[in-house]
Predict the structure of Zinc-binding alcohol dehydrogenase family protein.
Amino acid sequence: MFSTHSAGMMATFAQIVKPFGAVVAIDNAPNLDVSPLMSKSIAWHWELMFTRALHDPTSTAQHEILRQAAELVDKGILHTTMTTLIERIDAAGLRRAHADVEAGSTIGKTVLAGF
């Protein structure tokens, strides 16, 4: 996973993405400069889960997408990427989650659940 918060990350994207390729981001860094992507015509896209709801509040498309996703999960076709479940959101759970992620050995998602 790449973080757009690194100053050198755009140079890395410019180096590894093919001409006319695309990068999709789910976050945004302040003063994000995508100009290193220009010479290869690399597209930069943002994805926000609730864009439809924010800009077309009468649409039921988000409801339908979530309903279909739930159906696929129930059928066992879609599977979670969660690999670690930490049962409590407390200081110990947060320390464990942080240590796991900081170690760089996590695969999948670490989820903290419950109080």
Observations:
- DSSP finds four helices and four strands in the chain.
- Helices lie at 9-16, 51-55, 61-74, 91-103.
- The radius of gyration is 18 Å.
